[in-house]
Design goal:
With about 400 residues, the protein is of the alpha+beta class. It folds into two domains: about 1-70; about 75-400, Porin, CATH 2.40.160.10. Helices cover about 20% and strands about 50% of the residues. It has three helices and 19 strands. The chain has a 16-stranded antiparallel β-barrel with strand order 1-3-4-5-6-7-8-11-12-13-14-15-16-17-18-19.
Amino acid sequence: MKGFLQKAGFFILVLLLTLTAEYAGGTELEEVKEELEQQQRLIEELRKKIEELEKIERLEAIRTKEEEEIGPQFGRNLGAFGDINFLTDSRERKNPTFSIGSLGLYTSASYRERLNFLFEMIVYAHNNRSGVNLERLWVSYTFSDTFILRAGRFHTALGRWNKTYHHARHLFLTVDRPFFLKFENTGGIMPVHIVGMELAGSKELSYGRFKYWIEVGNGPGFRRDRHKSIFGGGSYKLAPNNLFDVNHSKQVAMRIYLEPASIEGLGIGVFGTNFKVEDTKHTITVNQGIYGIDLRYVIADVELLGEFFYLTNGSADANAWYLQLSKPVGMFIPYARVEVLDGKDSDPYLTNLSGGRDRTQYIAGVKYILDLLHSSLKLQYRYDSLKGDKVYNIVEAQWAFHF
C-alpha cells in the first residue's frame, strides 16, 4: 500500500509539474503573440503613413511642375544685346564720333515645348533722343517639325539674312546689315517685318534637309520720313502696318531652303513676296514684287554667303545683291563684302523711298571673338558710293555684346 501511495504521489507530482509548465509556457506564448501583433499593427500604421507621405510628395511634384509650366518663365531667358561704335566722317555721321547702338531686350516662354512665345523690343537713340520700337511679338504652336503655326509680328521670309541674324549685331560678321536690308525706319527698302500668320517647318529627306516658310499679313505702307534723309532720296519710308491694313490687299511671302546631302556645306534658298503699298492719302499706289535667291557654302572653313533680290512693279525693275566671304583664323574672322542697289529713276517704288537711290559699298574687316556667345570686337574699312553724292572712305569699330 505504501509503495502504491508513493507511486501515486510521484505520478500526481509529475502531473502537477507538467500542468504548471504547460500553463507557464502558454502564458509566455500568449505574451509573445500579443507583442508580435502589436508590432504588426505598428508596422501597418507606419506603412500607411509612408504611403500618405509619398502621395503628398507626388501631388506636390505634380503641382510644382504644373506651376512651372503654366507660370511665366521670362526670368530664365531674359536677354539683352547692344553695341558701342566709333566711325570716321561718313554719310551716317558727319564727324568722327563715338555712338551708342540700339539696345535690344527680348524674352521667350514655352509650355510643354509646343506653345511658344517671343517678345523683342529695341531702345534706340536718334538725334540725342531715344525711343522704343516693338520689333517682334509672336506666339506659335508646334504640331510637328514639319508644321509650325505662328501669329504676330516677325521677320519676313526674304532671304537668309533676314531669317537668321535678326537684331543682335554680335551675330553679324560685319558692323551692320547690308544697307538695303536695313530696318524700315532706318532707310531699308525691303519689308523686313510682317504682321500676320506664318506656317513653317523642316524635314530630313533622302536628298537633304528641307525647310519652308509661308506667310500672309498686312502689307507695308509709305510713311513720311520725319527725319531728314541722309541718303537724299524720296520723302517716304516703309512702315509695317501693325494695327490695321490700309487696303484690302494682303502681302504674301514664301521661302524654301534646301541643304542637299550630296554637297556638304551647301544651302540654297529661293523666296518671293508680293504686296500693294500706298501712302496714307492713297495718292501713291504701287503693286510691288520682290523675288530672289540666297546661297551659303562652307568649304575648308571658308564661308561664302550671298543673296540676290529682283524688284519689279510693272513700271520699272531693279536689283539688289551682296556677296560676303570669310574664314576664321583662331579667334579672328577676316571678312570682305560687296553690296549693291541698282535701280531706275522711273521706279515709283524706289524713288519714293528715302533709301532707294543707287548705292554701292565695299567692306573689308576683321571680327575678334572675345566670347563666342557674349562679346566681339570688329574693325573694318567701308567704301560708300551713293549716286549723285560724294564718296566716303570710312573706318569704323564696334564692340558688340549679348547677355
